[in-house]
Design brief:
Length: 149
């Protein structure tokens, strides 16, 4: 079933339950997907929908970091709630150990031996973890493993 159909059903449920926070986030997700469809002039496939959701989650993670730095706990709490709603539509997130295994496999496959080959490793890793892991976490693990070489 398409993500848009799922979102529409969940929007109806949120409206009936008068859950304004969930409704607001779901409408933002739906709008983001529809905007991408308009740009592409066609319906999105599952992977493209996942890309949109990942981008929405990344925006919220970045916002959370900035709000916490600024001491704006009220806004940080709101973003945390939004993140839990968006997470429901993303695939199960990989553990740090699973990410490390994927990164190590990519390092072995590329034969990377120094931090200069960071791009090669990331190029192999990111398609495998798309939507399943935070890019910043993957970035840190790749740097760490390449520093050890």
């Amino acid at each position: 079933m398409s993500l848009l159909i799922t979102l529409n059903d969940d929007i109806k449920t949120a409206m009936k339950a008068k859950d304004k926070e969930t409704l607001s986030v779901l409408r933002m997700l739906k709008a983001a997907i529809q905007n991408e469809q308009i740009k592409a002039s066609r319906d999105l496939n599952g992977e493209e929908e996942l890309t949109v959701l990942s981008r929405e989650m990344k925006q919220r993670r970045d916002s959370l970091t900035e709000f916490e730095k600024a001491g704006r706990d009220d806004l940080a709490d709101k973003v945390k709630i939004e993140m839990t709603i968006v997470e429901k539509y993303l695939p199960k997130q990989l553990s740090e150990e699973e990410i490390r295994q994927i990164v190590q496999g990519a390092v072995d496959q590329t034969g990377a031996t120094s931090p200069k080959e960071f791009g090669k490793v990331m190029g192999l890793v990111m398609p495998k973890v798309k939507g399943k892991a935070d890019g910043n976490q993957v970035n840190a693990i790749v740097k760490e493993l390449l520093q050890e070489k």
